[in-house]
Amino acid sequence: MTMKVAFIGFGGVGQALAEIFLKQQKGEKPSFGFEPEVVAVSDIMKGSVYHPNGLNIEELLSAVRDSGSLDAYPDQTGLIRGWDSMDTIKDTNADMIVEVTFTDVKTGQPAIDHCQTAFEHNKSVVTTNKGPVALAYDELSALAEKNDVFWGFEGTVMSGTPALRLPVMTLAGNEITEIKGILNGTTNYMITEMEKGKTYKEALEKAQSLGFAEADPVSDVEGYDARYKTAILANYLMGKKIASEDIYCKGISDLTLEMVKEALDENQKWRLLSRLTKREDGSVEASVKPELVDGNDPLAGVNGPTNAIVYECDLSGPIMLTGAGAGLIETGYSLFIDIIHYHRQNALTKL
Ligand code: HSE
Description:
Blueprint: E1 2-8, H1 12-25, E2 35-43, E3 47-50, H2 57-67, E4 80-81, H3 85-91, E5 96-99, H4 111-120, E6 124-127, H5 130-146, E7 151-152, H6 165-170, E8 176-182, H7 185-195, H8 200-209, H9 218-221, H10 224-237, E9 248-249, H11 257-265, E10 268-278, E11 284-294, E12 306-313, E13 317-324, H12 328-349
Parallel strand pairs: 1-2, 1-5, 5-6, 6-7, 9-11
Antiparallel strand pairs: 2-3, 3-4, 8-10, 8-12, 10-11, 12-13
Helix pairs in contact: 1-12, 4-5, 5-10, 7-8
Bound molecules: L-homoserine.
């Protein structure tokens, strides 16, 4: 089955997914029963191309990598250039929109409008943008359901490590009473470096140079990035609509080398923990803050930019999942997981 795909945004994450599609086309990855056909790419900086019969993925990647622009994509009969994101979502023949634009997480835009427009035009969406899920989950999921389309956002929490689908699919049947986790790689990396003796400033500079940090690292160090992810977990896994600004949030900017050393001397470690706890009355308490964890706690063994999450389950007990929380290939892969699930769901409903 052919799946017609349009990319809205074509930065590193989008390109990583395009590479995976290319591997599928070359037979280096299983087909999973579908052949992705990239029909459109629209990027606010790099330009846009659309061909209803499909574009050449290798040519798309070379154009953006060699020249930084889709203008270098070769001309061919029927090729349309210059459509913006909305034209591309509404008027191309794509049935799957890959939404990977640069989004302002404070407003969730333009990703919220992109998702909304796609759903209104009966198109499915996969995205790694936290904004739409953290800020407009109820509205967008209702709209997707009403229009009988798929919305995948696995990569919004822990990139390609399946922090969202694992509890829903594999741990089904449990009641999850508490979730705690290290959901921000930059701060965990910084704390680990401070445990080795680096100052806060040195550790932050190193995290920035390695590319884990957000464009504005304030979002990492003050806990805002982890807070958006915590809101997504509350909405999606605990069924509680909690606005991210209502989540208690304290980052690591007050953490000193002395505090880190003192903790180590007591066989403890500081970790920036996101925590969601179900109360007796069914409400959920949510926080993001540095917490001291015992040296023997599995979370104390999570070092560097790695993320981890623990689900306290009533039947299976605590289940911990750990893995990358960022990275281009890992985040590109999270979109691929969503697309495989979309296809499987579609194939099942057609039986
Ligand atoms: N800046 C984020 C982090 C990237 O460090 O975890 C992934 O959301």
